[in-house]
Amino acid sequence: MGYTAREEWQQHYADGKNFRQLGDAERAVFAEHTPVPEGGRRALDVGCGTGELAAYLASLGYAVDAVDFAGSAIARARGEHAEVEGVRWLQLDIEHDDPAELHQEGYDLISLRLMYPFLRDRSRVLHALGERLRPGGALVVITPVVEHTPEERRDIALDEDEIGLLTAGWKQAVRLEADELTVLVLRGSCHRDTAAVERRQPPTGHAVTGALAVLTDEAGRVLLGRSRRGMWELPGGKTSGPEDFAAAAVRELGEETGLTALASDAYVVTMLVDDSHGVPRLTAVVRITAWSGTLTNQEPKLFDRWEWHDLHAFSCVGDVFTPAAQALDAIWPGVIPDLPPVHAYPLAVDQPPVPGEPAEAARLRHEMAETVIDGGWAPSEQVQEALRTVPRHRFAPEVNLATAYDGGDRAVITRRDETGAAISSVSAAWLQADMIESLHLQSGAIVFEAGSGGYNAELIAHVAGSEGRVVTVDIDPWVVRRARRFLTEAGSGRVTVVEADAALGAPAHLVPRGGFDGSVITYNCWDIAPAWREQLAEGGRLVLPLEIGGYTRAITLERHGQVLHARHFTYCGFVRDQGQQAGTVPVAGLLDGELTLRFENGIAAPTAGLEEALRGPRHELATGVTMGAGAYFGSLQLYAATTLPTFCQLAAHQDEGVTGVVKDRDTPAILGDGSLAYLMHVQTRYGERPEDKEWEWFVHAFGEQGPQLAEQLAATVRAWDRHVRADDNSKHADPILTIHPAGTPDDLLPDGDVLDKEHCRLVFRWPGRNGHLPGPARHNHAIAAATGEA
Predict the structure, then answer these.
(1) Active site residue: 123, 427, 452, 519, which one?
(2) pTM exceeding 0.85
């Protein structure tokens, strides 16, 4: 009964035919190895047929989702088990349909009874189901095996190699027998680390040249063959005679899989140079953008089968032939981690975009867009349509769809440095939308972006329209290569990617006459590069995450002459700058590493006598300013950082230290001569409900000048409470901010608090403050400075 098509199974059940009945031995396996604890659990029965196993699992106490792709099977199951409670009968093709109806919280038990051999993409489906298991859950596969199956029906049975592949990567795999059926109870991770491996037999000849075909299906999945050598391989092989690499890839594709493609739809995008067993090897990576035919295994002596694989699962598929792994990385950099080195030579080819995505991606993209829109971050139709249209998951192929389309505050980290710190990411969708909205782009706009990833640039290109253009610049060659590839695969063709230090701006030949209509910086900036202002059109907007005293705000700036005027502030966080613009933060350690002072504004104050002060008595001062659960105090941080001389951040690195600061947290602080004061919030009211809880701001201080510093810091908190804070967290007052070129004389600056950086002078005018601090206040000004409104 080697059915492969849905129609065959539909007719099978419609004709009243059944399947092998659930035996007592099978029932005993479930009762013994997957018992339901008190309180119940949730199960998923895949390929449920007429529902016998689903009904039995319900009798054990499971709440069951029973799925089958044959509507006739589901109809019979509903009728034959109408009295059974606790089962949802769902018509669903587990291989191809959008799994929206399945429980997003996952399952404690997933069963595949007598259906695993019928799956076409076994590895992909098993991985996807494994990701739906809750901690401690089990995936149970019941299957015939070759040993107990007549030769004429062995196409529905598994051999030992297949069972080994099925169980690889699970932390626990228990094998049982039930009435000559094999039962596999799998627990733990379904992930098997990917490894690039070579064939055992060395190649013959003095050198090897070959071509590998990379193609995707209508869902964007990649075709790989499970070879008899025990590894996954791409279609391809050696060139023959005078044929070119594209022709070789097309020929090998047909010979191995039965699929056909035109040479005009085959693009050689990269050449790989390495060696195999000491023999030089030259491999052409050929991207097939269109194909036809029915997938079949044309060379069963060389391959067990061919399957379509999700990109995000490439990190855990097991052994992959080294050139195939390198070829996949050439098309989608980053999908397979820790590959051996290879010399890669990308070619400049005019490859068209390649369509293809699962229905689930479209649904999740629209859900993400609606979340962002409902949050008020995307009021314009242009940005809304960009969020609904641009395929975010194709710019983060190493993560699953749910992660790529998270509508909350999650960024997708795409690159880390040697310490594990994130250095490249796809930012949270709401923040990208907010920054693009702040640009106020018109149709046909030409935009500069610093920091490339591809997705944000493509969003901007979509908003700018068919006549618009984006120039995106990044200093990291890997990020540039990745952005170029993803934009080639899924972009509009209106984004130009440049490898350079973005602090220098765009190359002159790419800067439009009159300057860019808008510019956006997508990494934390300590300073504002002169080129960003100089290359911006008069009246154009620059949106960037600017670090102010260690706190980051995405600030929208509008150019008027040589001055940038702030129009909007958004609380945010980004990866750090890697170029010449990156700021160095002076740091001072205290008490053998228990505490750290960070001078985020770039100028360190003397710390002599502080350690002695910290060993003395602690002065505490209540501010009288309280807040409830969920209160926003980011504006207090920014207010303190821009109005207090000798401002710094105090961080603790152990619990229950002398300061009372929570380990690995930081808090605003100011310094005097051998003295320190810092801000704390202390819970003063408790309760079961959030609205019953309350905290009050306190100032703690050490040293002879501690009481004076405490009064200064407390006055700052009270001034913030009177003039900046609002009951509505979204209504806190922002400062009036203007940014002037470095070297602008004090008498040409407006009144306000001045923060100097290398390339610019920032002037903040907060409500209730009329004072003026000319440049960064030095240590000996700390006590003499105004403590309240000037």
Answers:
(1) 427
(2) yes
